[in-house]
Prior knowledge:
Order of helices and strands: HEEHEEH
Largest sheet: 4 strands, antiparallel
Helix content: 40-55%
Amino acid sequence: MEDLPYMRETVAECGRARQTIIAGLKELGFVAHDTRANFIIWQVGDPKRAVQALAARNVYVSNKDAIPQMKGCLRVTVGNATQSKQFLGIVQELRAKGLVEP
């Protein structure tokens, strides 16, 4: 918090990465919700299967399906631009294999 310019740039980078993930998920046919925080919420057809498939690729998300208002939803933390592109690439690969579907 003492380095205000660094903090502002980090917040801005998180915002850009969040928008990249949201746009990428939507292009893949998913519903993605912008939280304006360092995470997003996205909907998948089978949350348990998606969590397992992502974990097998060392991508860890939080399954929010047990919350009545968040049926079918996963929470993913937003990283930097490189991490966001890697995440989308993995989701795209798993979607093509039918392991993570909208």
